[in-house]
Amino acid sequence: MRFQWLVSVLFALFPIGLSAQKVKTVSGSYEYHAPKNISMEEAERIALERAKLQAIADEFGTLVSQSNFTSVSNRNGESDVDFFSLGGSETKGEWIETLGKPQFNRSFDEDGSLIIRVTVRGRIREVNRAQIAIEAKVLCNGTDLKFERSDFRNGDDLYLYFKSPVDGYLNVYLLDEATKSVFCLLPYRKSRQGAVFVEHDEDYLFFSKKAAGVYSSEVDEYVMTCSRNMERNILYVMFSPNEFAKSSLEKSPNTRPHQITWIDFQKWIKRNRSRDDDFNVKAIEITIKK
User: Fold this and answer.
1) What is the pTM of this model?
2) Cis? peptide before 187, omega within 30° of 0
3) Could you give the 3-state DSSP secondary structure of residue 59?
């Protein structure tokens, strides 16, 4: 009877904890004056992101940033938007989901520069917890921090620097925006670990056999490739002080990383975030050009 009473109390308290996080339905608008060196698709993507951030700032009284993925394509004058928020808010708010289809209006100023006006509606949530301040830096063709950059050329080598203030577990995935395929870069293909354990305040360099030393036989090294004039990838770095395991993966032939569908990857992220408030996601955009 005592056990049953305890379970009843826990279930009674659980929804109270959920209701402490305010969830609101909001609308946000933004007008973006695009520089002449970016495409219409890129201008629409930037305008949409800023409209969402502005909506969160207006509701909760502070400017926030978040880790998410938005793909905007334009065909025959109509925009097609694919949006998924990973909820990686750094302060007090996060975008949960987009409701309906964002509305875009395009015009040009007197100098011929593109102006994008966008209105978006969605659900946002107040976040009161402070996230762990991890460091994740993409390095191109070198293993020192001076090689940090996110613009690659076809054939460039990819490395990742990582550091955390606390012990924890790490996964790294790469989204190919063109194919919507998601590849697991860490843990490595030969690893039996569900996630890589990292110690606090230690400098880690991944995707380098030389840096791995005696463990080099397990390391996968990566070269960025591009079949079109330009491609965009998103590198997702996921960390938690609580142990978790990588998603279920489909084995890839030859030396390609094992992969997961974009939809299943989204579901896996949502499950981890719902179970672990400390599950931290950092999205780093990478461009590859011929």
Assistant:
1) 0.66
2) yes
3) helix
